Amino acid sequence: MASRRLTHSKALASGLSAVRWAATPRQSMAVAARRTISSFVAGEPEKPSMKTSLPGPVSQQKIAKLTEVFDTRNVSLLTDYSKSIGNYIVDADGNVLLDAFAQIASIPLGYANPALIKAASTPEMVNAIVSRPALGNFPPVDWAEVLASGLLCAAPKGLDKVFTAMTGSDANETAYKAAFMWRRQQERGGYDVDFTAEELASCMNNELPGAANGLSILSFKGGFHGRLFGSLSTTRSKPIHKLDIPAFDWPQAPFPSLRYPLDQYAAENAAAEQASLAAVEDLILNYHNKPAAVVVEPVQSEGGDNHASPAFFRGLRELTAKHNVLLIVDEVQTGVGATGRFWAHDHWDLPTPPDMVTFSKKAQAAGFYYTNPELRPNKAYRQFNTWMGDPVRALLFRAIYEEIEKHDLVKHTADVGEYLFNSIESQLATQYPEQFTNLRGKGMGTFIAFDHPDRDNFVKKVKGLGVNVGGSGESTVRLRPMLIFEKAHADILLEALSKAASS
Length: 503
Fold this sequence. Notes:
Elements: H1 3-13, H2 57-67, E1 88-90, E2 96-99, H3 102-105, H4 114-120, H5 123-130, H6 143-149, E3 161-165, H7 168-188, H8 197-203, E4 215-220, H9 229-234, E5 252-253, H10 266-286, E6 290-296, H11 310-322, E7 326-330, E8 356-359, E9 366-370, H12 391-406, H13 409-431, E10 437-440, E11 448-451, H14 455-464, E12 467-468, E13 470-472, E14 476-479, H15 487-502
Parallel strand pairs: 2-12, 4-5, 4-6, 6-7, 7-8
Antiparallel strand pairs: 1-2, 3-9, 8-9, 10-11, 11-14, 13-14
Helix pairs in contact: 4-12, 5-12, 6-12, 10-11, 13-15, 14-15
């Protein structure tokens, strides 16, 4: 491990780090006031510090001004990024919060990470910022090397090509397009078969045979895949995402609704997963708009942190392969180490890799990985836009990946996640069973969630105590720490959860 990690070990030995959180059921829970030292970012605050309620007077004033020109109804924290550092986020009033939500799971290495600042200061990065290329037409001379040294170093097992995009929604949309074009080329008779005159003319009127109106993407109830038109038609998490937007007639299958603790409901959960797989196969065979692909999240994040077993996903892979349907694994939120594996689908031990894996968020870049050359369209300009991704983000990801590897952050996250999950399970869920129900995420790094009967008020209390957490679904509290989140930070989080539960 790196020298900073060794320095941290010496600090632990000298008693400077926070005492590990523990408590006896029904007793008050307090953490001894000891110094928290980050192994990864120098200058991180010792602990949260709350000067005002949220939002404070300065935040309220600035939000009111911002409202004149920008929709602020979604604002959670008006942030001063010049003061945020490491695992801590600072608002306009100087409130310092431990951030266990990380910009909706999209910050990998903390705020003001020195390695990323260094990468952002290079001539290579400056050039990419001020002379941004239209990558499809005018790629930089070193674009192959940039991809090979970053995004492709991190490629999922069995996938060796990448299509770069702008956002997670964009990544999914372009993956869907690749699936449709692949399927239509098969129906034409092969990758090199050209289009007919009728296809070329009819597609301009959004009609068959040029417009593939008889094809679809199969998704799952509770899934979230973005808010653009194609991705929105596969999003099934909340009505507010979809109201008033025209949608494609695409199928949805039930996602298994597991019961917890898992070991107490093994038979029921296995039956639920088999029922879901049977529904998938029925839709593949019988839905009137035939699925070209199935898209699935390893954990349904926006839909309430819904999990399924590796056996379920192996069954899904086998079904899609059996029926010549592509499998798209949406790793926009789960990818890049948060689940204790670099890619969450690494937990599944699949017989063959997914056909495409989409990514964004913690990668800071976006796009999809694949290996089949026929997923690259047979004609130029079929998968194309002005930017086709961003070299700035590819360069940033390269620095992120190097830091993850240098500090073994995937294993680190797995270890911290085990500590955090076990502490919630053995202490909080025991002392406050009605407030920590359906605890899930065991063995999934820090990708942990539980249900609370008064979720929104509970989250507000936790934030008021100086810890930023989030929600999803109807009643879920979800934890999304950064990869540099340590056990000492977990102690602070656990104390805040305990105080919120007892208040």
